[in-house]
Every structure is written in structure tokens, then in C-alpha cells.
UniProtKB/TrEMBL annotation, chain A:
It comes from Streptomyces cylindrosporus. Keywords: Cell membrane, Membrane, Transmembrane, Transmembrane helix, Transport. This is ABC transporter permease. It is a multi-pass membrane protein. InterPro entries: BP-dependent_transpt_permease (IPR050366), MetI-like (IPR000515), MetI-like_sf (IPR035906), OppC_N (IPR025966). It is found in: Cell membrane. Pfam families: BPD_transp_1 (PF00528), OppC_N (PF12911).
UniProtKB/TrEMBL annotation, chain B:
It comes from Streptomyces cylindrosporus. It comes from the Bacteria. The keyword Cell membrane applies. Belongs to the ABC transporter superfamily. Pfam families: ABC_tran (PF00005), oligo_HPY (PF08352). The keyword NADP does not apply. SUPFAM superfamilies: P-loop containing nucleoside triphosphate hydrolases (SSF52540). Residues 7-245, 281-521 form the ABC transporter domain. This is ABC transporter ATP-binding protein. Residues 566-575 have a biased composition (Polar residues).
UniProtKB/TrEMBL annotation, chain C:
It is a multi-pass membrane protein. SUPFAM superfamilies: MetI-like. The keyword Cytoplasm does not apply. InterPro entries: BPD_transp_1_N, MetI-like, MetI-like_sf. Belongs to the binding-protein-dependent transport system permease family. Residues 95-300 form the ABC transmembrane type-1 domain. Keywords: Cell membrane, Membrane, Transmembrane, Transmembrane helix, Transport. Its main location: membrane. This is ABC transporter permease. The chain crosses the membrane at residues 99-123, 135-159, 179-197, 235-261, 281-307. Pfam families: BPD_transp_1 (PF00528), BPD_transp_1_N (PF19300).
Amino acid sequence: MTTLDTAPPAVPQARTTARAWRTLRSSRTALVGLAIVGVHTLIALLAPLLTSYDPIANDPSHALLGSSWSHWAGTDQYGRDVLTRVLYGGRYALGVSVVATVIALAIGTVIGCAAALRGGWFDDVLGRILDAVLSVPAILALLVVVTALGTGPAVIVIAVAVVFVPQVVRVVRGAALAVVPADYVTAARARGERTWSILWREVLPNIADVVCVEFAMRASWVVLLISSLSFLGFGADPPTPDWGLMVAENRTAITVVPMASLAPIIALATLVVGLNLAADGLSKAWGVDRIREGS
Amino acid sequence: MAPIVSVNSLCVSYRSGGRDVPVVHDVSFEVAEGRTLALVGESGSGKSTVAATLLGHLRHGSRLDGGSVRVDGKDVFALSVPELRRLRGGTVAMVGQNAGHALTPSMRVGRQIAEAGGEVPVLDLLEQVRLPRPADLARRYPHELSGGQQQRVAIAMALAARPKVLVLDEPTTGLDVVTQRGILDLVTALRDELGLAAVLVSHDLGVVARMADEVSVLRSGWVVESAPTRTLFAGAQHAYTKRLLASVPRLTDDGLALVGENGEREVRAKAVVDADAPVAVSATDVTIDYGTARAVHGVSFDVRRGEIVALVGESGSGKSTLAWSLAGLRAPSGGTMSHGSGDLAKPARGRPTALRRLVQLVFQNADTSLNPRRTVGDAIRRPLRFFGTAPDRRQAATRALDLIRDVRLDPALADRLPAQLSGGQRQRIGIARALAGEPDVLIADEITTALDVSVQAEVLRLLDDLRRERQLACLFISHDLAVVRGIADRVLVLRQGVVVEEGPTEAVFADPAHPYTRELMAAALEPDPDAEPFVEAAPEWLDAAEPDDVWADHGDGHRVRRWRPASTSVPEGVS
Amino acid sequence: MLVFVARRLAAAIGTLLLSSVLVFLALQALPGDVATQILGKDATPDAVAALRKQLGLDQPAWERYFDWIKGAVHGDFGTSLVSGKPVGSEVAQYLGNSALIAVVTIVFAVTGSLVLGILAGLYRDRWADHVISTASLVGMSVPEFVVATVLVLCFSVALPWFPAVVLYGPDASVGQLLPAVWLPALALAIVMAAYIVRMARTSVIDVMASEYVTTARLKGLSTWRVVTRHALPSALLPTLHVIALNVAWLVGGVAVVENVFNYPGIGKLMLTSVQNRDLPVVQAVALISAVVYVVCNLAADLGAMALNPKLRTRGRT
């Protein structure tokens, strides 16, 4: 008996995570993006060690100073060190965004998968409701919730999560729909497996990459939205160090101390660029075309 | 006479993962005017890459490493952009594999043909490719045409500028046999009429035997053998070519062909099914609907333990629908389906686990039937645990390795992901997974369609071995009559959801009595340039079955749906 | 084809009704009683009850909903709790001002981004693509208020070409507002274009790699013809929906940008009415946003029908 049927060169045992990591390492874009986000996270965590100033204590005698050795990025109108506030600012932006994104993604993934797997009327009704929710601008919904329930981080986290769930559902549903007709899902159905088991064993592992990319991209949107909210005065309460709020506070003095506005802008932009690069790189490395997924 | 196409020591490589992978090595051939050369090979042989170079085309990421391609005296890779444009269409034209993808979806087909240039009016071209009502057809969009019509349009488009060389890249792959025969006849006629030279790329040795004057056999980018068609088919020199030829199933085989290392061919006699073998699964008057469309209409059959029953038909005949319904994936709308230990009319979820495990389905496409994120071992262990055939984790692991061995694979593959296996290996794993439930009924839905011919031979043999070892009742779905002849004990021929002929394989092939069966057999191509059609072509016919008189009995279980010759001749139908 | 259009239209109206219910319910569910808010904490219970009756708050929610919708269909959105003027005409005035920005933004963002996106897709992995892709990545990484602030810094402070803030009220004439339109429009266009550029690029790359584009090339057609006739109709299809979503996004986007420039548009109105808890105005603005969203998506679907004969000829074969 002949064997014309040869296997591709043997590869040592490969686990899914190991493979994901290998492809990830091959993408410079993703690595750069993740590195930027990592640096931001570190800075936010280590902020108290990196600076000796207090981010919220006023010091009128040092108001509106330019860059100097003692205040690298100058001080704002209340005499607070700008650099210190920028370093601390990442805590609010990252903390709120990450928690909100995780919640939105968790809920959205479950609903999206269920819709794809169930189909039929459940999918139709869900589609209508999501469309209706999406038709109200996110920022308006957030403004209303915040004015009604206050600006505490918990309120913002929940509001942002709710606003973003429909979009996550759409993306995940689209990705899951591509997986559901596959024969291995059919095989599981023919075996008589429960819906949950199919979801967990067959569908989720195959859309994990989409969900990861979605996380990075959604997080970048959440960061932008929350900073916009703070800028408008509906987000972080003064004197919390927050980048959006800092731009709003220092914008009027932009000609006097430009660094007070520019520093938080640079911090914000680099974080979002990092997230976007990570999303881009991951989607390319894993073959997920996130834009086509209908964001 | 100087050759119109001459390829000299062509080398092409493809850039992948940061390094160059050579895909074509030192390929040379010539084609004289009016002659047809076939490039034959299995997947990954580089045949399509070579064909595209005749038009000066390389895939994104591919690079010419050496050699030259001259067409009509010009070196195509040395041409300027305007010259290359004149060459394409004007001198060489290409007909691709899948016309459904090759036609621009947003443009009417008439316009697409017209812009290919040339003085021949579009309607004349459409008439030339034997399409009915050309004026109406030219105004349609590609999606409004059938697969055969799309391929004819693609041919008309290629011929529009009256080229001298036609490149045909798997022009009939994916089409039904009868449609394929029509397209091949058309290409032959046009080639002779217009005096074209042709380069045909194909994996199908039947197509090659019928069309080509000369053949080059490619394997992994190397030419292993070149010879005039008759010489090659009469006495191939290279062992690979011999094995390839020997692996092709034939309509005349009355058993499974076993192929040796050097292409020796031995037909193994079929296993004898015990006269008192119990019926494992039986269907009576099964009807299946898709919305208002009826896919399967009143089909009945029994499959006994140790027996292989084949359902044969073209696409749309309802054969796969029937298989899926039996596997519990779609509830029938009428009739009964039963297994020795229970009712099969209910969908999988409604069946008791013990019954579900006894009826198992193997899928057509092994690439999509295994979860790409789970190891092969996982794929087999899951049903072992789910059906309780292995009581605990440790035993499941051992049993999984046994099953992998049972399908003649190395148990070390258990830790691989499906993407790390070849197509044939994946299909074997698909079979192993189906066997995990220790079924007595196996439904094989076109399991060799996506495989190369040599791999197909091995998988067929495995299936035949397994049914002997395990006394499996096997429902074998296929469109390929030659495959069916070698493996099945009984055959049902389906046409548009209706059985037109059924009986023991030998009886049906010895005396095909229904015109549709004859049509299918006449259209099948044998790997032999001098092959006569297996049967005479069928007359035009009409269905003549009455509710109380459906069958004409030919004895020994061979029966044929009643029909009568059509009195008036129907204009040539183009599918 | 008519069936298809009719079905889409019915779906659009359904979505609209559903979102009006959602908006209404969400605002009803807000804590705090409107009457108490208007009259202050010290109001007598009698006065509150009288005001509730006057505002119709004593009726069941579904009746108030139908009254509201009935009025909305006729352009009557009730009375503003703050200014006491009819909400309909007030919103219309602000909306008109915003439309000025929106038209300029859409014209520049859509045409510009399509051209850039298609160029980047066609010259994939060359320098033009790298420049465009990087610029669009930056564009989508910077929030609107930052773009607006930077633009003010450049074109109002450094180069005093445009006004940094608008000093007119909502009743300003087009002539008065015109000089102030450009910077907000530019800020919005930059953010919006980034997404469209990326989508157009991806879909052009996909389509250029398709078999039918290869076939068209191998027919010996010129690149221009291959791109315009064979590739673009299909490449624009997915882009259409992204454009629609972004146009709908403008309604929210203007909120921030108009605030930066103190521009008297719908975004500014949204902000102040939320701050003042002027529920009738908030409801009206939300409903109008929903209408914009639904109309944009409907337009994209109809556009897709024009580009895709599969949708147009459905039911003919």
C-alpha cells in the first residue's frame, strides 16, 4: 500500500495559546501596540513612586508655571504639577475603561453567540431591539444616565457597558454566524449536544481571536468616550486627575501654559494609538478582519 | 512548425512566512498550433501557477526565479504593460475554474463579453457557445445563470478577441457530469473550429484522456513525465504516473481497486453480504421539504448489516438531504425512517442517546468537519465521553489512540491540530470520530469528493475494510458512478428527489434501464483516450409512473421507474 | 425589488417606533419627579399635584406615550420646561444650524476619505498607503475635543483666520454663522474620515484580490477600467454602511465639538437641556437622532441595492 498522502512537516505539539502567542510575536504592529498599553498600565500603577507631588492639592503660589526642572510639564491654574496629574490620570482612564469593556464584552459575547446559534425569531427580535438602542447616540444616553444617577465611577462603568453591548453583540454575532454552519458544529448537533456545550466547546474557541481584537478596539472607543464625557464636565469630578477633564480645565490658558493641555492630549492619544495598533496587529496576525466584521 | 507556446526551465517561488518557497521547478514544455497539452497533477503540484504564467500572471507574493515563457514568439515576462495587455485576450485567453467567481457580479454578462474586445458581436459569441436566447441572456447578471451557463459565458468571453491560445484551468471542476460533458464537447468543437492551441489544467485523468494530445504530469512543482496522451495512458513510465492512473476508479471495476507501490492494480472482490444479515436501517416513502420546495419525494430503502448501499445523483438530487435527515439534522415531512432499536424520524435531540450513537455521519469536507482549535485526539475523545463508550478519562484517551490506529494512522497524530494534517488524514480522523460511538450504521456523505484521486483510493479501501471488520451498514452518498461501482453492493439513482432506478450494483451497471441512469453513465469519463462510451446515450424521455404502477421489475431487486420516450423532440437543453 | 424596498421601509418604521418607546421609557424611569424639580423642594404638595395634572403626569405612562408620539408626528413635541417655548420650533432652529456643519462635514469627509481609502487600497503596502493608513490611525485615536482644541490653537490663535468661539445665539443668520462653520466641520471630518478611509481601503484590497478582478485583468483591460467598472461597485458596498453609521454618529459627535466652539447647534442644545433636565427637549433630540440613524441606514440599504444587482433582481429568476 502506498502513501502518497504525506503530512506537512511535523510541528511539535502545539497548544492553542502557544500558537496564538507565536503568531502574535510575528506581528510588529501588535507588539508595539501592546507595549504602549503596557507602559501606560505600568505608569498608572506606579504613579505614586514616579512623582513626589500630590495630584490634587492646590498650591496657588505656583500656579501657571512653565516647564522647569521641578515641574517638567509646568503647573496648572491651581498650582498642581501637570506631569503628576497626567501620570495619575491613566488610573481613572484605564480603570474605568477596562472594567466597562470587560463587562460589555462578556455580556455581548454571550448574547451574540446565543443569537447566532439560536437564529429564528430570537435573532430577529434581538436585531430590532439592538438597532433601536443603537439609534440613540451613545453620548446622549450617557449624559442622561450621568445626570440622573451621578458621576460615580460605578455609574459610568455600567452606563458605558450598556451603551456598548449592542455593538459587541453585532460583531460577535457576525463572527459566530460564520462558525455556526461549519460541519464540526453540525457534528456536535448530530451528537445531540446541548446549546451551552456547543457554544463553549465549538463556537467560542473559534471566535476567541475576534473577541480579543474586539476588546482592544472597543477599549479604545471607551477611552475616547469617557474622556469626552469628562471634557464636557459629566465624567470625572474635579479635582480627580483625568485627561479629558484636564484639557477642559486648561484649555482657556492654552496660550499661557500650552503643556498643561498638550500633556494630557499626548497621554490620551498614545494610549488610544496603542490600543488601535494592538487591535490592528492582532487582527492581521490572526486573520480577523475587524473592520469587515461590521463595527 | 514553430510551437506557439514554449516554456523553458520555468521556476517560480512563493513568499510565505518570510522565506521563499519554490512552487515550480524547472518546468519546460511546448505546444504546437492547434494542439492541446494537459498539465495534470494533484493539489499542490503547481499546475495552475504554470498555466497562469502563459498570460504573464503571477499570484500576489509569487516571483519568477528563472526560465522563460514565450507565447507566439514573445517573451511574456519581458513585455511592456501595453504589450502585455494586447497579449492577454488578443493572443492568449483564460477560462478559469469557477465561472461563478470569475464573472463580475455587478455587470451584465453581455457587457463583460463585449469589453473583452474583438470584432465578433456578443450575440454571435453567445450563439457560438450554444446558449439559447442570446439576446435575453446578454442582459442578465451572472447570478441569474446556472453553473453551466456561467462557464459557457466565460468561454465566450475568452473567445471574444479570437485568441490563438486558450488556457483552461480546471474548466469543469465542480460541475455535474452531464454538464461537464456538454462543456468539454463544446470546447473540443470550438478548438477545432477556430484552430486554437490549448493548455488544459486538470486533476481529472478522464477529462485529460478525452481532451489532450499531449500530457505533462506534475508533482510538487516538478514535471515527472511528459508524453503523447495515448503513449502515456497505454504505458506510463514513471511510478507516480502509474500509481495515479491505477488509482482512478473505473466503471468496469466490479470491486475495489487496490493500488501497489509501482502502480500494479488489483481488483478486490466485494464482500459477500450474508443472506440473513439483519436490516440495520430502513426508510419508507420518505419525503423532505425545504419550505415549499420538495427535496426528497417518496424514497424507500433498507440497508443491512455489512452492506454498502449507494445513493447516486447530481447536485440537487436530494441525496445529501436524505443523508442529513437520517443523521437527525432535518426532520422528514413524511414517511418513516427506523433503526433496529428505534425511530429515526425525530431530529437528533429527540432521539435517545443509545440510538444517536448507533447512527453516525461522516462529512464531505474534512477541512470543516473538525474543529480547527481542538486537537485530533480531543475530537475523538469527545464522542467517546459523550456517548459513554469510554467510562472515564483515561480509557477515553486509550480508546482514542486505538481508533486512530483503526483508521490506519499513527497514534502520535493525536496531539496535532487538524490544520497540521493532510486532507486524507483529516478525513480518516472524521471516520474515527464517527466510529467512536460504536455505530452500526455509517452515513458517508461524499466523503472522497474533496480528495485527490490517490488519497480517495486509500479512503475507499479503509471504508471497505471497516465495513468488513465491523459489519457496518453503510449508506454511501456519491455523484461518482465509477466510485460507486467499486464499493457499493446496491445502488439507488436519484433524480430531483425521486428514485428512478435501484438494484444490485452489478445488475444496474450491466443493464442500466432508465434513460437518466444511462445519461449519467454515458457522460462519465474513463481514463483512456480510446474509451467508448460505457453505454449508448439515452433517448429523450418522459416520466410515466402512475400512482399504482411506479416500477418496472427487472428481477433480483432491480427495478426501474416507468418512463416512455418523448414523442416530440425537445430542443437541446442547456443546463 | 419593490417588495424589498417596502420591507426595508417597514423595518425602518418599526425600529423607529421601538426606539421611541425605549427613549420614552428610559426618560420616565429617571429618578426624581419633574414637577418637584420645577417647583423646587419647598413646594406645597397641592402645587406639585396641580402642576402634575397640568403636565399630564397623572395619566398612565402608555397614554402619555401615545399623546407624545401623536404630537411628534405632527411636529408638536410639547413645551420646554426651561424656556417655556414650543420644543418643536426651538429644536428646529438649533437643528438648522447644525445641519450647516453637517453638510460641510459630510461633503468633505465622504469624498475625501473615499478617494484616500481607494488610493491606499490600490497602492497597498507602498508609501502612499503607509502615509494614509498612519494618518487615519492617528485620526481615529484622537478624540473630537482634542482635534477641535488643536485646530483652534492653529487657525484661531496662531493664525487668526477663523473665530475660536461663536458669539451669536441660536437665531443667528447663515451669514453670521458661516465663518464659524469651518473649524467644527474640519474637526468632525477628520475623525469621521479616519473610519471611512480604513473601511474603503480594506474592501478595495479584498475586491482587488477576487477572482473576477483577476479575470478582468487577464482579459487585457486597462487598470482604470478594471478598477472603475469591475472593482469599485463591489468595493463600495461594505463602505456604504460604514458611511451611514458615521453620518449618524455626527449627531453625537457635534455635541462635543459644538461645545468647544460654543456653536448654537443641536449638540449644544442637547447638553444644556440635559443639564437643565428639560425632558421634553431631551426626548425630542433623542427621537430626532433616532430618525437620522434610521434614515441613514435606509439610504445605505437603498444605495447597496443600486450597486448590487443580486438585491435588485431578487425574484426575477
